Structure formats: C-alpha cells, structure tokens
TrEMBL record:
InterPro entries: ICL/PEPM, Isocitrate_lyase_ph_CS, PrpB, Pyrv/PenolPyrv_kinase-like_dom, Pyrv_kinase-like_dom_sf. This is 2-methylisocitrate lyase. Belongs to the isocitrate lyase/PEP mutase superfamily. Methylisocitrate lyase family. It comes from Paenibacillus lignilyticus. It comes from the Bacteria. Keywords: Lyase, Magnesium, Metal-binding. Its cofactor is Mg(2+). Its EC number is 4.1.3.30. Pathway: Organic acid metabolism; propanoate degradation. It is an enzyme of class 4 (lyase).
Length: 300
C-alpha cells in the first residue's frame, strides 16, 4: 500500500464524508454535467457504469464496456472538476492482475475511489431480476487484489454486494464482513427495499455504507433524513440528471421534426449565457482579448 497523501482525491472523498451524512453523491454523465453538479453544491461525484455504457457507447449496462472505456470518461471528468469522483468499476474488469491494474489506472486517472461488485462478469443492473453472483471466496480475492494494488492509501475501495436478492440479509451481511476483512473501506448495499434493511445492515457492518437510490429501481426514493436515521453514510443518485436530460433531448428532437422549428421548446433550453457561465467562458474570453490587445500594441 502506498503512503498517505493528504491532497489526493481519495483523501478529499474521505473529508467529504466527514462534512455531510449521508454524503450525497451525484452521477455525472460527462464533464459538463460535473460542472453543473459542482455548482449545485455536491461534495462528491460519481461515474456510473450504466452511464458510460448508455451515454458514451449507446450500449446496455451488461458488462460490455471495458476498463479503458470507463477510464476515458473518468479522465475527462476528473480534469474538469476538483470534486472527488467515485467510479463504478463493475466486477473489476477481469481477474486479479486486471483488477490490480484497474485500481492503479483509476488512481492515475484522478478517481477518488471505485466500487467493485460480486456479480459474475456477465453482470446486470443491480435492480434487475436474475442476477448471478460469484462465491464469497472469489469476491474476497477480487477485493484483496484491489487492496494490494493501491498506490495511494487514501484511495477508497468500496465493495458492492448484490447478494441481498439471492441470499437475503444474512448472506449480504456475512459477505460484507468478509469483504471488509479483505480490505474494503466501504460497502455498497445494492437494491435494498426498506429502511429497516439498511438499519439492520448498518448496525452490524462497521464501515461507511452506501445506498443507491436510482430511480425506477427496487429502492424507494428515501430522503437523506430517512437514510441518516438508518445509519447510511453515502447516498447515490447515479443516473438522475441523465434520465432528465434524455427526456428533455427527446422532446426537443421530436418537436423540431414535428414542428419544423425549435421555437416552442426554446423556453426549456439553457441559454447561451447559462451554458457559458458554468464553463467560465468569459474568463477565457478576457484572457484571449488581453493576448490580442498585447499583440496589437506590440505591432503598433
Ligand atoms: C449503480 C449502477 O451500477 C450504475 O451503473 O450506475 C446501476 C444504476 C441503474 O441501473 O439504475 C445499478 O446497477 O444500480
């Protein structure tokens, strides 16, 4: 394990956890969405595996996208914002050596942490039926390989368990405890259906626990206060803004085709002024103007 680096993204994620409980983690589909989430006041952001597959590649979230595909989005997003990024690393993208490489490359790409899950490589969305999971021993190997590969001790290794659906609370707790023992810093309890389940889990799992309140899934849209009372430390909104963007985009495309003009949906659009605001556009423009002015005065 590498030495502790106070200013690393991992340490910033750990600091954010001290500032807010549960820490709200916003899914950001691209760098611009990250700028918007930052301006809305989030302290931590998320790169969703479904988001990379759906938005960047037009593919379903079924374990089709690769380590490199996710890393590319992570690099783009981490270079646009200072906020710590939690990244969905699916099943780790292969066996022990691949998982070790995933950890190191994610750190180099600017991620603050990743989660690795206990589904089989041919994974599914955690909120869909018929998920298959690997044995606890196989998942423990994944976590050990990931923990050994940390080149920054503060990098957050989160183990996700999808066991609730097939093994119930007892199985999920036993697995989580084994994953923590193997080096997981935090646990992602996927697809819990009630606050009682979160409470029963957090009562015995003594590391920070994440709740995924993805819409239209198995988990009701619990509020931060409800989740705090159930002992949850992080709450994830992986695709909320993406779903809203998609609905808005489809409406705009259909309107333009049907009406031959975008006039009736103009009021729903971000203006040029608003678009530029989050980019810091005018600062760039001022610098450009100053450069031109300096060059002009030299030429005079
Ligand atoms: C968290 C998740 O893995 C994701 O890729 O964002 C998905 C989200 C979703 O499909 O709604 C999940 O499996 O929960």
């Amino acid at each position: 394990m590498g030495s502790t680096n106070r200013s690393s993204p991992g340490s910033r994620l750990r600091e954010a956890l001290q500032q807010e409980k549960p820490l709200q983690v916003a899914g950001v589909i691209h760098a611009y969405a990250a700028l918007l989430a930052e301006s809305a006041g989030f302290r931590a952001l998320y790169v969703s595996g479904a988001g990379v597959a759906n938005a960047s590649y037009g593919l379903p979230d079924l374990g089709i996208t690769t380590q490199g595909d996710v890393l590319e989005d992570v690099r783009r997003i981490s270079s646009a914002v200072e906020l710590p990024l939690l990244v969905d690393a699916d099943t780790g993208f292969g066996s022990a050596f691949n998982i070790a490489r995933t950890v190191r490359e994610m750190i180099r790409a600017g991620a603050a942490g990743i989660h690795i899950e206990d589904q089989v490589a041919a994974k599914r969305c955690g909120h869909r039926p018929n998920k298959a999971i690997v044995s606890p021993a196989e998942m423990v190997d994944r976590i050990r390989s990931a923990a050994d590969a940390k080149i920054d001790a503060d990098f957050v290794l989160m183990a996700r368990t999808d066991a609730l659906a097939s093994e119930g609370m007892e199985g999920a707790v036993a697995r989580a405890q084994a994953y923590v023992e193997a080096g997981a810093d935090m646990i992602f309890l996927e697809a819990a259906g009630s606050l009682e389940e979160y409470k029963a889990f957090t009562d015995v799992v003594k590391v920070p626990v994440l709740a995924n309140v993805t819409e239209f899934g198995r988990t009701p849209l619990f509020t931060v206060d409800e989740l705090a009372a159930a002992g949850v430390s992080l709450v994830l909104y992986p695709l909320s803004a993406f779903r809203a963007m998609n609905a808005a985009a489809l409406k705009v495309y259909q309107t333009i085709r049907e009406q031959g003009s975008q006039a009736s949906v103009l009021g729903e659009m971000q203006t040029r002024e608003e678009l530029y605001r989050y980019l810091g556009y005018y600062d760039y423009e001022r610098k450009l103007d100053a450069l031109f002015a300096a060059r002009n005065s030299e030429e005079e």
